[in-house]
Design goal:
The protein is α/β, with parallel strands linked by helices. It is about 25% helix and about 20% strand. The strands form seven sheets. An eight-stranded mixed β-barrel has the order 1-2-3-4-5-7-9-10. A six-stranded mixed beta sheet has the order 11-18-17-16-12-15, sandwiched between helices. β25 (about 695) and β26 form a beta hairpin. The longest helix is centred in the N-terminal third of the chain and has 17 residues, at about 135-150. It binds beta-D-glucopyranose.
């Protein structure tokens, strides 16, 4: 019997299971209530299952295995695990409880392990690119698409929902995240989670909490005072949970204010359960558990990734020993198993079982990815109307960034492979690092070829950019140069705040006044050449059809509408932590003033501010009015396309109050696509937590009576209109949720 076989395999690896637990459960259902019985709420169904389960079966749910062979730990994957996947938790066949098949991550179905296990799947643009679209509808569609591929591959848990705030612009995983603002990140990731879960599978939210850098991530301690956590990092998760209702939370590798995230009672029990009322289960990050009883007592329900690390803490024998020693109670085990079962029922994993090998419409899915990329590309600068490129007979040279072959992606566990071919279809194979945290993967979507297709009358040549003098000469001989500048980032490393070849950009810009720079970076970069370059386009990691998305934006087939979800600094000295990321205690002295809030509070002039993004048309915003609604306020205004082209804009509402961490906070936003001359009335509701501060003395959201300013802007530094509103004092409890 399969579960028995798995149980023994686990025992062999995990040393001895106690004899009482190793007993064979009944072979047949008999009088058992099967999981397929759909009567009752998820909680009632979970309780019915739990009542019938042996201790061994309950403990099975608490332990997840790496989904692929892992030679360093001499580990062979479980027979039922999906090849090349992140994780596997055995099911309980006699009750009809399915295994949990887990795959990474937020941009699509990733592959772990070697070339033999590679599965080619559709990569979205990076999480940061999706956030840059400020388009919650697109975020849902993106999530729904990758969730459908996960389901088609037989995965029922997608390890997505990365909602860590960007506190460290050099963080190697910033590309997976959704920016520096808790509202924007929470809404965008929440909608993506909802899209994923619309496939009757679970999405996580992760990495709970404050996994803001990769340096020393396994032991480092993120130090942030509680009020700041509440108003920044935790608020992003809280909003993502309200919007997306993830079935699971992944606790992070790092410590938070002392305890490891995965044994942090404040995070896992007080905040998640007692205050937010979240009913799901907490799984650990892969190898992020450091204890048995303290973790379980703190609120951890499931350890992940056994096999990847050589030992495990929620091993059956260890949990039993902790129970025997009185360090945990049977109620702890029952509660953990119940939460896991409840999510399996609540999110459709039992009623809509997954099966491997279902057909995938890759052509359709690539169009979803391309649309997301097109919505997230940000036009940072466009002097003299250099862009869009017209289809005229002129010489254009495309330089560097392997733009003749494809577009860059970010590395680590979230790496989605493009499929086809012996090397996973990597358009530029062989770049270093080839092994973890590599390989470096370029998706086969060439911006050069796409430009040639869109501009048939132009004479478009390519220079690989390795020889700077040659590139400069080619630029000089052309009418216009497009330099592709890249920064590869990956999980497990932090990265310099630069593109790989600033001097190439300098050389080209000095030789060609019509130079366009296209950036493919994990997050913000410094641009020492920015003043000398008339046009800059931020394409992030643009995903599987990124070359087409870039070309369509450059040529105006798509009017750019992305806005920055993160501040681009002018210099390292403007950052709260100017020095390189350090191990040990990382004290986030900026507190809740993350990103633009820090820049505003300290009067730093960024290179490009949060919220910034240009268009090929122009917009007017006016008529701002504000009135109270519920505990918050509602802002109304009109947005008009005052220019010659159809285009979308992101109207941003900022709020200001006395005694806050920063002069202004993003209070809401609305993206609207308008025809030339079209006007739209828009309404944005401001969450009352964004008009309050966290009150540590009397826990909750405290708003002082007084005058608040509500502003309507194009970005965090450009307000079109402002009004004041007087609001009474209020105090909302930590359990408060929007309706
Ligand atoms: C990452 C997680 C990922 C997990 C499983 C870890 O290294 O931090 O984000 O989901 O691996 O692959």
């Amino acid at each position: 019997m399969k579960s028995r076989h798995i149980f023994l395999a686990a025992s062999a690896l995990a040393l001895s299971a106690t004899p009482a637990l190793a007993q064979t459960p009944p072979e047949t259902a008999g009088d058992a209530v099967m999981a397929a019985d759909t009567r009752g709420t998820p909680d009632e169904r979970a309780a019915a299952m739990l009542a019938q389960m042996t201790q061994g079966e309950k403990l099975t749910l608490l332990m997840g295995y790496f989904g692929e062979d892992f030679a360093p730990a001499n580990y062979t994957r479980m027979p039922e695990a999906r090849a090349g996947s992140a994780g596997y938790v055995p099911g309980i066949p006699r009750l009809g409880i399915p295994p949990q098949w887990q795959a990474d991550a937020g941009i699509g179905v990733a592959t772990q392990g070697g070339a033999a296990s590679k599965r080619g799947r559709t990569a979205l643009p990076s999480g940061l690119a999706t956030a840059a679209s400020w388009d919650a509808v697109a975020a849902f569609a993106s999530g729904a698409m990758i969730g459908s591929e996960a389901r088609a591959d037989g995965f029922n848990v997608l390890l997505a929902g990365s909602v860590n705030l960007i506190r460290e612009p050099r963080g190697g995983r910033n590309f997976e995240y959704a920016g520096e603002d808790p509202l924007l990140a929470g809404v965008m990731v929440g909608r993506q989670i909802a899209g994923i879960q619309s496939n009757n599978i679970i999405s996580t939210s992760k990495h709970f909490a404050v996994n803001a850098q990769e340096t020393d991530r396994g032991a480092g301690n993120s130090v942030v005072d509680e009020a700041a956590l509440r108003m920044a990092d935790l608020l992003a998760f809280q909003i993502a949970h309200e919007v997306g209702q993830p079935g699971s939370v992944m606790c992070a590798y790092n410590r938070v204010n002392g305890p490891y995230s995965c044994e942090n009672r404040f995070l896992l029990t007080q905040v998640l359960r007692e205050e937010w009322g979240w009913p799901g289960y907490v799984m650990s990050d892969w190898g992020a558990v450091h204890s048995t009883a303290p973790s379980i007592v703190a609120g951890l329900d499931q350890e992940s990734g056994f096999g990847l690390q050589s030992d495990a803490w929620l091993r059956t024998d260890r949990v039993q020993a902790a129970l025997a020693a009185g360090e945990i109670t049977q109620a702890h085990i029952n509660t953990a198993a119940h939460r896991i079962l409840r999510s399996l029922f609540a999110h459709g994993l039992v009623d809509h079982p997954v099966a491997e090998g279902q057909p995938i419409d890759f052509a359709a899915n690539r169009t979803v990815s391309q649309a997301a990329a097109e919505g997230g590309i940000v036009l940072l600068k466009n002097e003299r109307g250099l862009l869009p490129l017209a289809n005229t007979a002129r010489r254009i040279v495309v330089i560097g960034g392997h733009a003749d072959r494809g577009v860059l992606s970010g590395g680590g566990s979230s790496q989605v492979y493009p499929g086809d071919g012996p090397d996973g279809g990597n358009a530029v194979p062989g770049l270093e690092p080839r092994t973890w945290p590599g390989p470096v993967v370029y998706y086969p979507s060439s911006p050069l070829e796409e430009l040639r297709a869109l501009l048939p009358d132009a004479d478009i040549s390519f220079h690989d950019g390795r020889d700077h003098e040659g590139a400069a000469a080619a630029a000089n001989a052309a009418d216009l140069a497009i330099v592709f500048a890249t920064q590869w980032a990956s999980e497990s490393i932090d990265v310099p705040l630069h593109v790989e070849d600033d001097t190439l950009v300098e050389s080209v810009a000095m030789n060609q006044r019509n130079t366009v720079v296209v950036l493919q970076t994990g997050g913000p970069v410094l641009m020492p050449w920015a003043a000398r370059v008339p046009a800059i386009v931020q394409a992030w990691y643009p995903g599987r059809n990124g070359g087409a998305a870039i070309a369509r934006v450059l040529t105006g087939a798509v009017n750019p509408s992305g806005h920055l979800p993160v501040t681009f600094p002018r210099s390292l000295s403007q950052l709260p932590q100017p020095g390189d990321p350090q191990p040990g205690d990382v004290v986030y002295t900026e507190g809740a003033a993350v990103g633009y809030k820090w820049f505003d509070a300290h009067g730093h002039d960024p290179l490009f501010p949060f919220g910034h993004g240009l268009s090929y048309t122009s917009f007017g915003m006016s008529g701002l009015t504000v009135e109270p609604r519920g505990h918050g306020v509602v802002a109304r205004f009109t947005l008009t396309n005052t220019g010659p082209r159809e285009g979308a804009d992101v109207a941003q509402i900022y709020v200001s109050g006395d005694g806050w961490e920063a002069p202004r906070r993003l209070g809401g936003f609305a993206k609207a696509n308008l025809q030339p001359g079209e006007t739209r009335e828009l309404e944005v509701t401001v969450d009352p937590r964004l008009l309050a501060v966290w009150d540590s003395a009397n826990p909750g959201w405290r708003r002082a009576a007084g005058t608040y300013t509500v502003s309507l802007g194009e970005n965090s530094r450009a307000m079109a209109d402002s009004v004041e509103i007087t609001l009474p004092a209020s105090h909302l409890p930590p359990t408060w949720k929007p309706e």
